[in-house]
Design goal:
Elements (H helix, E strand, L loop, with lengths): L3 E6 L2 E9 L5 E3 L4 H5 L19 E4 L4 E4 L2 E2 H7 L2 H10 L5 H13 L7 H6 L7 H15 L10 H27 L12 H10 L10 H13 L7 H10 L5 H13 L6 H15 L3 H9 L18 H17 L4 H15 L1 H5 L7 H10 L7 H22 L19 H6 L1
Antiparallel strand pairs: 1-2, 2-3, 4-5, 5-6
This protein binds acetyl coenzyme *A.
The site of acetyl coenzyme *A has 20 residues, from loops.
């Protein structure tokens, strides 16, 4: 393997070191490139750019591998609780039972939100998209906890902000939903686990008793784990870049929520169900929809990924889980058959094969969310709830490593040397 890379420019040779990660990924360290050569790199969409070194998540897109802190996602999704995985991502190790107990107690103690948050919620029209509401509520935590604006918090303070956000996020998510329904808010119940508590805040009716269905809470637990981190994707890079200016945790995560919202990223789970429903109601055949995709009239939402060029291991787990959960709940959603037929047709078609397009995490997750009773416009909010520990872990790592402010360069292609005096005389 090369130990350095040589670049020859303007007749001069420059050497740059090669760095290798613990899973053997290789990079050319060009941090001195501009100083030494006067050139920068040009890489739209950062397809070849490593913005950081990270110990949190390993992803091998060619071989469909995803590890959190060295543990395969398949094992975590089948045996762990979401809070264990959150602890793993944020603190680096799976908790022992005493650590998990204390983590859980600390979170439970802070699950209430300030009552004034209801006033903020009241300011939104009931038809507001819950992603916009959630990002505003998370950002509003900077107002309720102004000490979070301290650009140089102690480790203890930083940890308190982290616990607060993990604790209050389910409450804020559930209340955004209740607001959209015109329903009274349900308060957290500390006797329940993280997922069951969230479900009762979402669905308990004030006049009736509500028992959490363990099939539903287990399914939610699995989905949240599968979404918990995914290295330097669009929203995580947003959280890191905002955090690099020493913005608060709440401000940085709020920005990440907005980045996640877009249809090419986390917003795809909502788009997938809308696409499947549209195919169903229009009576269009799967074959004719695939033809429209190939003519580039529409995208096959939930397909393709910037990094996975073989398969997305999360999608594999979710597809199996989808069948199991719908069976257990006795739900028959006709769009599941459409999704399977689309996947089958696409995987045989050279358009998708040549471009290495496979189902991603969003292709089947919406079908499960719908079976759990989550409305379509809440799907991306559920993604945000799952991704929160990852955003927190990445923000914490950036701050611990004292990474420099993120500030890409550009190649200017606008007008040059225009004469201001000509316009000034008019
Ligand atoms: N349907 C049809 N064609 C596609 C799709 C798709 N879903 N995805 C990519 N392509 C095609 C592009 O048109 C392009 O074709 P071309 O070479 O003929 O121009 C080629 O495949 C490469 O596509 P890019 O957009 O350049 O790939 P990129 O890595 O930039 O994009 C992305 C990845 C954004 C995920 C893309 O695959 C996409 O838009 N997918 C649909 C949206 C989606 O499911 N997003 C969720 C991703 S997972 C997540 O963020 C949680």
């Amino acid at each position: 393997m090369a130990e350095s890379a040589e670049i020859i420019m303007d007749g001069k040779s420059f050497k740059f070191p090669v760095i290798v990660g613990t899973e053997n990924e290789k990079a050319i360290d060009i941090s001195k490139l501009r100083d030494e050569t006067g050139y920068i790199t040009y890489d739209p969409g950062y397809k070849n750019t490593g913005a950081t070194k990270s110990e949190i998540t390993f992803l091998d897109g060619e071989n469909g591998i995803l590890h959190y802190r060295g543990y395969p996602i398949e094992q975590l999704a089948s045996t762990s609780s979401f809070l264990e995985v959150a602890y793993l991502l944020i603190y680096g190790n799976l908790p022992n039972s005493a650590e998990l107990d204390s983590f859980t107690v600390r979170i439970n103690k802070r699950s209430l939100v300030h009552e004034d948050m209801k006033i903020i919620l009241d300011g939104f029209p009931s038809y507001a998209h819950p992603m916009g509401v959630l990002s505003s509520l998370v950002c509003s935590m900077t107002a309720f906890y102004p000490e979070s604006l301290d650009s140089n918090p102690s480790d203890e303070d930083m940890d308190l902000h982290i616990i607060r956000l993990l604790a209050k996020m389910p409450t804020m998510v559930a209340w955004s939903y209740r607001k959209s329904k015109g329903m009274p808010f349900n308060y957290p119940k500390n006797s329940l686990d993280y997922c069951s508590n969230f479900l009762q805040m979402m669905f308990a009716h004030p006049t009736e008793s509500y028992n959490v269905d363990p099939v539903v809470s287990d399914a939610l637990n699995k989905l949240l784990i599968l979404h918990a981190d995914h290295e330097q994707n669009c929203s995580t890079s947003t959280v890191r870049i905002v955090g690099s200016s020493q913005a608060s945790l709440y401000g940085s995560v709020s920005a990440g929520i907005n980045a996640l919202w877009g249809p090419l990223h986390g917003g795809a789970n909502q788009e997938v169900i809308e696409m499947l429903d549209e195919i169903k109601t229009s009576g269009m055949t799967v074959e004719s929809f695939i033809e429209k995709v190939k003519k580039k009239e529409v995208r096959l939402m939930g397909f393709g990924h910037r990094v996975y060029k073989n398969f997305d291991p999360r999608a594999k787990i979710i597809k199996v889980a989808c069948d199991q959960i719908l069976n257990k709940l006795g739900v028959n959603d006709p769009v599941l058959d459409i999704a399977k037929a689309l996947e089958e047709a696409a995987l045989k078609d050279t358009y998708f094969v040549d471009r290495k397009l496979y189902p991603n995490v969003d292709f089947y997750s919406g079908i499960i969310y719908r079976a759990l009773g989550i409305p379509v416009n809440m799907f991306t909010v559920m993604f945000a709830l799952g991704r929160l520990p990852g955003w927190i872990a990445q923000w914490k790592e950036l701050r611990a490593n004292k990474e420099p402010i993120g500030r890409p360069r550009q190649i200017y292609t606008g007008s040059t040397k225009r004469d201001f005096t000509v316009i000034a005389k008019r």
